[in-house]
Amino acid sequence: MRVSTTTRSRGGLVVALDGPAASGKSSVGAAAALRLGYRFCDTGLLYRAITWLALYRRLRAEHASALVRLVPEIELVDDGTGRLSHVAVDGVDRTTEVRGPDVDAAVSAYAGIAEVRHALLARQRALALSGRILMAGRDIGTVVLPDADLKVFLDASVEERAERRALERGIEPDSKAGRKILTELRRRDDLDSNRDVAPLRVADDAIVIRTDGNTFDMTVSLVVNEVRRAEASREAPAAVAEGQANAGNESPAVETPAPEAPAPEPPASMRRDDVTAFDAAASGDETAAAATEEPTTPEVDAASPAALAVPPTAARPRRLRRPPPKPTPIATRIGFLIGMGSAVLRGIAGSILRLRFEGDTNLPRSGPLIVAANHASSADPVLIGAFLNGKLGRPVNWLGKRELLEFPLTGWAFRIAGIHPVDREAADLDAFRTAMRILEAGQVLAVFPEGTRSRDGALQQVREGVGMLALRSGAPVLPVAVVDSDRAWPRGQLLPNFGRRVTVRYGKPFSVGEELGTAGQPRRGRPATEAATRSIMTRIAALLPPRQRGVYAVGVEPPPQAGELATGGSAS
Ligand code: CDP
Ligand code: CDP
Predict the structure, then answer these.
(1) Which residues contact 298 (CB under 8 A, 6 or more apart)?
(2) pLDDT at residue number 244
């Protein structure tokens, strides 16, 4: 049976999304489907569920007919948004179980059984009949839906994929467990690509998106744009043909296919702050990602990330990645320039605001340290950096977007100030590695886990970058709360209000790993990373007044300052 994919009758496309393990099919596919308003189906779950059940029932790969009889027990389940990204076995959700290492190790063997694949085929095709679906797998474009309206093949080097998978599981990529993931992926790639039935291969008419170095959001945008482009050319084939004939005209007669609507350019007050790129990179903020990564038109141009989407047969220009930014030397001591600069900034801040510092005794003067603070105003980096330098007896390092460092004069000053360039168009890993380098050198790194300034001054939900950094580096974390800076310098206001009280509170430095250990929490894997992040954010929340604790208010116990502050306080 071949599935007819006449788009017009369905008002949406059938999109095949194939690629090797950990290339991003499930996560990118699910995110792209949500943005597009499409359904999503992760077919890998079907093979994983069969494998899980077979292992449970002790059925080996030779028991083909018994394995086929398992198929009716398995069902893909909607996550509530039209995405079939859960799987139930006999009515019980087993999504977590089927992603375990036992299944990872065995799945390719079971997925290579022709009878099993055949038994799953009709089911996958039936899902595509009503269109408007993105289906992820290995053989969707080649076998399951050879007539799909659009075929996308996601790819990345096996090293990058292994690193992503390790980070996803909270595992150090260079550790023994990390290296095992790499070996396992290589083995699975080999089995999936060289099996007799429906091997993993790029369909001739697929668009290949190479994602090495891409941020997650960039990859999602590339997929979304390809779908939009394909939708538009389906809707107006005649016009598109005419448009192609007119290619090169300044005002083409055809309406160009609409790219994924770029997130509206945020007003200046809402833009991601320049020195918070740790989370631009480590948390993949959607607004920032869209603002910097979205091509303004779906046409592939040499300066747009869309150029990374290359159909294998056509000679489309491929965007070269910019050379990596020149690294900033790690700031290790307060030289004349840092000392002078900090003193000037302290003087300015002190003359505009009524500053108070609390808990500022016994701050560690040596060894690695992660300073993690809330972020509610543009004054925060100064209120933290320029003052902590003196209190720690050493400078604070930051991550910042590379553009900051590329202007001749300011670039020089920012480098002196210990800001390390991070390429927002590159992978999360780059920011992470720079952060690790600073900590491994035994120095201080300041981060705003929220990434962007909070809209209402209260803590926002953060992703797990900071928790993973704390766990992997083993560096103690110094929680810092900047209280009321949002009132002193509200977002969208050009200048700060004069004479407002702002309190900077330092908590006690603590080891996240030890805290999880004493609380009986897992110390490895994703649950550990989540728990570590929660623990850091709760410590910051505990230093803030209730109105600023936001989403982390629930974890604060006992109430604010009591017991949380190191002793001492000073007004400046
Ligand atoms: O998430 P990951 O890429 O590691 O794997 P998956 O997409 O969940 O797929 C697990 C396994 O199922 C793959 O290694 C393939 O052997 C198999 N599979 C397949 O053969 N055909 C598909 N359409 C999807 C998955
Ligand atoms: O489904 P598949 O095995 O192809 O991959 P996945 O499970 O969706 O992605 C593997 C990991 O890579 C996830 O943690 C993704 O968030 C991450 N990823 C990434 O960091 N950057 C990308 N461009 C794509 C995926």
Answers:
(1) 225, 228, 229, 232, 256, 257, 258, 259, 306
(2) 43
Q: Kindly state the average pLDDT of the residues 465-470.
A: 89
CA distances (Å), origin 44, targets 10, 131, 184, 375: 25, 20, 16, 40
Residue-wise pLDDT for 305-349, tens only, equals 222 222 333 333 333 446 677 888 888 888 898 999 999 999 999
What is the C-alpha end-to-end distance of the chain, expressed in Å?
A: 78
Cα angle 469, 472, 475 (rounded to 5 degrees) comes to 75
Atom of ligand 1 nearest to the CA of 185: 4
Cβ distance 38 to 14 under 8 Å?
Answer: no
Query: Closest ligand to 21 CA?
Result: 1
Q: What is the DSSP string of 332-386?
A: -S--HHHHHHHHHHHHHHHHHSEEEEES-SS---SS-EEEEE---STTHHHHHHH
CA 23–ligand 2 middle distance (angstroms): 5
Helix, strand or coil for residue 143? Answer: helix
The length of the chain in residues reads: 572
**With bands split at pLDDT 50, 70 and 90, how would you rate the model's confidence at 506?**
very high
Is any atom of ligand 1 closer than 6 Å to the C-beta of 26? Answer: yes
Residue 60 Ramachandran class (φ > 0 left, ψ -120 to 50 alpha, else beta): beta
Whole-prediction pTM? 0.53
Contacts of 292 (CB under 8 A, 6+ apart): 424, 425
- 544 or 330, which is more confident? 544
Whole-angstrom distance, CA of residue 451 vs CA of residue 428:
13
Mutate to test the pocket of ligand 2, among 153, 164, 219 (most ligand atoms within 8 A of CB): 164
Q: Tell me, what DSSP letter sits at residue 252? A: -
Cα of 161 from ligand 1 centre, angstroms: 14
Q: Give the tens place of pLDDT for each residue, 67-91.
A: 999 999 999 998 888 889 899 999 9
